[in-house]
């Protein structure tokens, strides 16, 4: 093996399995290990990483991405070979690290799949090969398992002494630098016949120390279940005076454990370590021996015998590994793609699992995601549901219903999300802040649900509203409210108020229409989708999301008309106070007047000051639809007239923002071009961009934002810190929200192009992201989408990104054109030549109407999009009578519901 060559990963199977040679030659690599029960681990090729169940319960020390190569603390497995000395089977010893660039003889290969990792490391001088497999078993137990198999590769017998070592941090991430030593004094350390357990006496919190019940343990056995020979439970005694975790005295000198077989000794008040010494053994050439390591977190003292009976043998490990592989394969294979590029199809499997990982990890607990305390934000709730609608549709209706309980009566929403579905918590940080884009996302996700399901009755279901101390979009406080009053909105008579989901949707999209800045675009407030634009709260405006809200208003009006025609719904029942926002029903506001809009909004705030009357008004549905359409069309005309930036090179693009000085952000200035991708995406994705404007936008994006090295930048170089716009511009250009290739917006740009019929251009966008993500020599990431690509081409913030949901959605509904139309199945493929295989076929397996379908497209002539049309469709071999659209075909839901639910149904589409 050429140790200096950079090898990329290669797929080795049909379920996303991949192989990577010399994985420790790339920094920042890490792999997620997780289950539905709340165990959240990270593991690197050298077994660095963390093991946790939440912010306050880390088994191993919390870490950031820089700790992956700087910290000496890791899972480790040492082998002391008689006559040769100590060797780390995970590659993490002071000697191996010192020799890394010179004389090291270690050779390593990583293999991984859903969701397991195996690293095989060989050392010719030691005559040992170690194969280490790690995974978190599917299910609800909070455990991580590790199996180490040692093989003698020498020509003669060797005698070796193994020691498994895992530092046991056993407390909150808050204690990492705040009272780190003091909290170690709380440790109660127990040894049992299988390992070391720590249950701190108290949870340290100066606001009120509490009795701690959580226990953390590291246990082990030989492959046949035999107990270890002894234990090292105290870290300072294990490493020795002057020693370290990567060169510990107990291993280097092969010391006898201070606690022998059977354990039973208790220690208190020290930093703990799970040091497990196994029996010395002699291996003949070619012989192997296996060891099991179990890391566990439990809400009380651990039943060690029961734990080891379940997990403590090679047989149990191997069985659970296969069970876990099958569990994740079932989730991922709910959606499968077959194109002319098998590697791209396998890569998409890793994209498919990313929304599930984000649901389980939230936005924390992985090395790059070292912020927050767990959970997801409001925007995440809705965007993650986009993927769930495709992967786990049965769960989505209740999730959507629960999520709407977070809407406030002022059109804003809760920003602190609880652990349970529909749980929202009143502000605990006393920070009054509103992200202006939050109200736009729920309808987009709900509309996808309506199209997939045809469940228009969902709009008429009732839900509560969220209430806390903030009101008038966080501009005022309700001094009469405290936590004892609960978080449900109430009427003036004290009853909990409920409104329909439709009412919630209308409220979130009507309030922003009046909440405008001096240029008559919706105020930026705390920030929009780009959290880095967080310094324009007074005069900043988001033109981009004004376009999004306008498109929502038009689409909601169309849904209302559909409710009338398909459900016979003649009226809309709304809180009486909301009539003020439907101004065309009464005294209409002059939409050109910013002050007029503010006055009407203040009237509404005064009418619904963190409570409502409880009186409902029944409004004519057509009249409401007309009001929404009128508002939408006004915005479209306003944007096309006032926010179009003319270019000296011809054409132009949309200005996306105004800063806190009330200045237009985008345009051609003396110091250079300022342009954002966000400012183009939302006018394109909805209805704001006129058809004749689209080619000019594409040309401007290619000219100003497309970089051959890193793809589509989020923005051009603005130059200098923009304290009147946001922290993003304090970041170096080409990093994160300042000019990096930000996957989320890039994919939404591609999605928008597909929606508007620019398929060749949309494919170019998605292909660029795929190429960047899989160029291992630059990106240095495992399969999947990173949050962004930096100026060097490196993938950053892997796994937990909403862009995965958007790519999955785009591939299913736009590229393969398998989508809903108010419950019916609409087939509208937008495949390009490169996506068909050698036989002219492309296929997708997915779920629709609670049935599993494989949709196979077969082109009998041209493979170029625009040169083929749907010629015929068969369902399980029978010809389908088509309801045709332009380049599309519809299969009524009634036909689909007559099919069995237990089998996969074949839809074959002939393109001619």
TrEMBL record:
Limits of the Glycosyl hydrolase 94 supersandwich domain: 124-312
Where in this chain does the record put each Glycosyl hydrolase 94 catalytic domain?
327-559, 624-817
- Report the InterPro entries cross-referenced here: 6-hairpin_glycosidase_sf, 6hp_glycosidase-like_sf, Gal_mutarotase_sf_dom, GH65_N, GH94_catalytic, GH94_Enzymes, Glyco_hydrolase_94_b-supersand
| One Pfam family of this chain | Glyco_hydro_94
Supply the CDD domains for this chain.
Answer: GH94N_LBP_like (cd11749)
Give the record's keywords alphabetically: Glycosyltransferase, Transferase
Source organism superkingdom: Bacteria
Spell out the SUPFAM superfamilies in the cross-references: Galactose mutarotase-like (SSF74650), Six-hairpin glycosidases (SSF48208)
Q: Does the keyword Hydrolase apply?
A: no
Q: Which Gene3D superfamilies match?
A: 1.50.10.10, Glycoside hydrolase, family 65, N-terminal domain (2.70.98.40)
State the protein's name: Cellobiose phosphorylase
């Amino acid at each position: 093996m050429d140790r200096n060559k950079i090898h990329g990963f290669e797929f080795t199977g049909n379920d996303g399995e991949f192989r990577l040679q010399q994985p420790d030659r790339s920094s920042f690599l890490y792999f997620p290990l997780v289950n539905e029960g709340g165990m959240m681990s990270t593991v690197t090729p050298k077994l660095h990483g963390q093991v946790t169940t939440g912010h306050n319960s880390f088994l191993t020390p919390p870490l950031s991405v820089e700790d992956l190569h700087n910290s000496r603390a890791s899972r480790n497995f040492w082998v002391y070979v008689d006559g040769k000395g100590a060797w780390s089977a995970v590659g993490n010893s002071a000697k191996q690290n010192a020799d890394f660039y010179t004389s090291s003889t270690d050779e390593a290969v990583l293999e991984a799949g859903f969701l397991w990792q195996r690293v095989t490391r060989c050392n010719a001088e030691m005559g040992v090969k170690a194969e280490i497999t790690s995974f978190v078993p599917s299910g609800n137990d909070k455990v991580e398992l590790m199996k180490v198999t040692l093989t003698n590769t020498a020509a003669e017998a060797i005698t070796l002494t193994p020691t498994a070592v895992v530092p046991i941090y056993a407390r909150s991430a808050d204690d990492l630098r705040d009272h780190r030593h003091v909290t170690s004094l709380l440790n109660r350390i127990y040894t049992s016949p299988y390992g070391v357990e720590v249950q701190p006496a108290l949870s340290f919190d100066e606001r009120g120390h509490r009795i701690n019940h959580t226990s953390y343990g590291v246990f082990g056995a030989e492959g046949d279940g035999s107990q270890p020979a002894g234990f090292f439970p105290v870290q300072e005694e294990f490493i020795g005076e002057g020693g370290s975790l990567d060169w510990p005295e107990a291993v280097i000198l092969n010391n006898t454990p201070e606690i022998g077989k059977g354990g039973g000794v208790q220690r208190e008040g020290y930093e703990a370590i799970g040091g497990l010494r196994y029996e010395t053994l002699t291996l003949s050439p070619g012989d192997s021996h296996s060891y099991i390591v179990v890391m566990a977190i439990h809400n009380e003292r651990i039943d060690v015998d029961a734990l080891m009976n379940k997990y403590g043998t090679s047989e149990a490990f191997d069985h659970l590994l296969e069970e876990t592989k099958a569990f994740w394969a079932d989730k991922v294979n709910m959606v499968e793609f077959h194109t002319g590029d098998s590697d791209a199809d396998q890569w998409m499997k890793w994209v498919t699992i990313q929304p599930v990982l984000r649901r389980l990890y939230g936005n924390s607990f992985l090395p790059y995601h070292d912020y927050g305390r767990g959970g997801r934000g409001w925007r995440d709730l809705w965007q993650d549901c986009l993927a769930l609608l495709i992967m786990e549709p049965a769960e989505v209706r209740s999730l959507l219903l629960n999520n709407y309980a977070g809407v406030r009566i002022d059109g804003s929403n809760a920003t602190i999300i609880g652990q349970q579905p529909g749980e929202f918590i009143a502000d605990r940080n006393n920070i009054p802040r509103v992200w202006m884009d939050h109200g736009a996302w729920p309808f987009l996700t709900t509309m996808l649900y309506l199209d997939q399901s045809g469940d228009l009755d969902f709009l008429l279901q009732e839900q509560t509203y969220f209430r806390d101390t903030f009101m008038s979009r966080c501009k005022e406080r309700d001094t009469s409210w405290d936590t004892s009053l609960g978080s449900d909105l109430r009427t003036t008579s004290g009853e909990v108020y409920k409104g329909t989901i439709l009412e919630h949707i209308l409220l979130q999209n009507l309030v922003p229409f009046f909440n405008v800045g001096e240029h008559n675009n919706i105020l930026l407030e705390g920030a929009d989708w780009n959290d880095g634009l967080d310094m324009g709260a007074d005069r900043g405006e988001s033109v981009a999301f004004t376009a999004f809200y306008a498109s929502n208003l038009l689409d909601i009006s169309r849904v209302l008309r559909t409710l009338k025609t398909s459900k016979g719904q003649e009226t809309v029942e709304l809180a009486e106070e909301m009539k003020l926002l439907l101004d065309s029903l009464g005294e209409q506001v002059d939409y050109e007047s910013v002050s007029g809009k503010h006055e009407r909004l203040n009237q509404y705030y005064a009418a619904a000051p963190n409570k409502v009357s409880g009186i409902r008004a029944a409004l004519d549905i057509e009249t409401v639809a007309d009001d929404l359409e009128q508002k939408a069309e006004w915005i479209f005309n306003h944007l096309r007239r006032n926010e179009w930036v003319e270019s000296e090179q011809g054409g132009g693009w949309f200005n996306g923002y105004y800063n806190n000085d009330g200045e237009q952000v985008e345009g051609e200035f003396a110091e250079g071009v300022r342009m954002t991708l966000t400012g183009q995406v939302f006018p394109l994705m909805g209805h704001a961009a006129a058809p004749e404007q689209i080619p000019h936008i594409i040309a401007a994006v290619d000219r100003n934002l497309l970089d051959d090295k890193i793809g589509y930048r989020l923005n051009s170089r603005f130059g200098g810190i923009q304290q009147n716009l946001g922290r993003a511009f304090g970041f170096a250009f080409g990093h994160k929200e300042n000019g990096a290739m930000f996957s989320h917006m890039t994919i939404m740009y591609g999605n928008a192009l597909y929606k508007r019929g620019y398929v060749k251009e949309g494919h170019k966008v998605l292909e660029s992201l795929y190429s960047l993500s899989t160029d291992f020599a630059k990106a240095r990431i495992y399969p999947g989408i990173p949050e962004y690509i930096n100026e060097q081409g490196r993938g950053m913030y892997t796994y937990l990104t909403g862009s995965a949901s958007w790519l999955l959605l785009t591939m299913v509904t736009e590229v393969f054109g398998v989508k809903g139309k108010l419950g019916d199945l609409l087939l509208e493929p937008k495949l390009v030549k490169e996506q068909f295989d050698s036989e002219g076929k492309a296929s997708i397996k997915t779920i629709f109407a609670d049935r599993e379908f494989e949709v196979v497209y077969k082109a009998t002539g041209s493979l170029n999009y625009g040169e083929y049309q749907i010629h015929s469709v068969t369902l399980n071999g029978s010809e389908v009578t088509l309801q045709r659209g332009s380049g599309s075909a519809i299969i009524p839901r009634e036909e689909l519901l007559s099919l069995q639910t237990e089998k996969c149904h074949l839809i074959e589409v002939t393109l001619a």
